[in-house]
Amino acid sequence: MPDYYHRSRSVSFGLLKIISVLVGVGLSIVVIAGYCFTNAAWRSVVKDGAADVAITVNEGSGFAQVAADLENAKIANAFWIRLYTKLFDDPTVYPGNYVLMSGMSYSAILAELHGHDADSVRITIPEGFSLIEMGERIHTVLPEISIEEWAAATFAKSALANDPFVVASGKPATVDFEGYLFPDTYEFLVDVTAEEIAEKMLRTMETRLNAIGAATGDAEGMSMHEILTLASIVEKEVRTAETMKNVADVFLKRLDIGMPLQSDATINYIIDGDNPSPLYSDLEVESPYNTYKHSGLPPGPISASGLNALNAVLHPARNDYYYFLTTNAGEIYYAKTYDQHLENKRKYLK
After folding, report:
1. What is the tens place of the pLDDT at every residue in 14-37?
2. Helix, strand, coil share of the chain (percent; to 5)
């Protein structure tokens, strides 16, 4: 057999091997790209603390311009979101001001951009927001409403103070409307005022509370102001509906025996922080909201409570615990006694 024949076969096998590798790499790239596209298209991955990004769609803007604006704002890749609209969605968007966040899926982004016409805006207020955070978000979507106007609409002696629901709640005259405005997604006309937004959010809180029903267990006999105050603390302490019910019962039992709540969430409210384990020096800050130094509830709510937190306080899960801790990973450990609590801290807070 001539030597050139063997060389020819070797070259052919080599080419086939190279082609196979290239095809394999190409298929891998297609699979990875498909996976990434699928995730971006339908799976939102918005990280905690993700900043709001204001997007304005002007009258007459085509989707190509909107896609470019989304890419410039680091919300979405222009090419992929345009491909998504060609394959799965309608590229029609309405003029207006929108608030989006990095990590939103293409379907969620387009749901917002399809959501209303030029005469209205949509504003989402998450659970746990403070009045200050609400004002900042509202100003982002509706620049005509200043931070000062929002503060005036929600301060202690604003027009809301005479609302029958507020009067019946037992709210002290010196406390503002922190915790009284329900966190939700709202749609308003573009010429809405700060007072109208606050009144709508207050009415929604009243409606949601009526739907949950009367308090049971240790929450019976509490005023609505006390319920909103405790719910706001529960909202900031833990995340799931189940743990909220357990923690609400822990706090209610502490209140019943005059034991300080010792809530880290109230300390963060005082110092405007977000530390799951405040420093010892923070615990010594003098404030009526410091539940380490003062027994009972603070003067008022510290955040906007969602349905889970409100329901947890009104209908807590009875248990034998008086202590709990939350790890950096978000795991909750309960204890019946202080010694057990110290052991949990030694084991789980490293």
Report:
1. 666 666 656 655 554 544 545 454
2. 50, 10, 40
Of the chain, the end-to-end C-alpha distance in Å amounts to: 74
Q: What is the pTM of this model?
A: 0.72
The H helix count followed by the E strand count for the chain is 14, 6
* Better-scored residue on pLDDT, 227 or 25: 227
Among 127, 46, 48, CA closest to 328 = 48
Chain centroid offset of residue 57 CA: 25
Span 111-148, pLDDT tens digits: 888 765 557 788 999 999 999 999 999 999 999 999 99
Q: CA of 326: how far to CAs of 203, 276, 333, 349, in Å? A: 34, 8, 7, 9
Q: Output the pLDDT for position 42.
A: 47
Q: Decide if pLDDT at 2 tops 50.
A: yes
Phi, psi of 116, deg, nearest 5: -155, 170
d(CA 149, CA 49): 25
Where do the DSSP E strands lie in 261-348? 323-326, 332-335
Domain residue spans of the chain:
52-210, 216-348
Assigned architecture for domain 52-210: 2-Layer Sandwich (3.30)
The torsion defined by the Cα of 249, 254, 260 and 264, in degrees rounded to 10, comes to -10
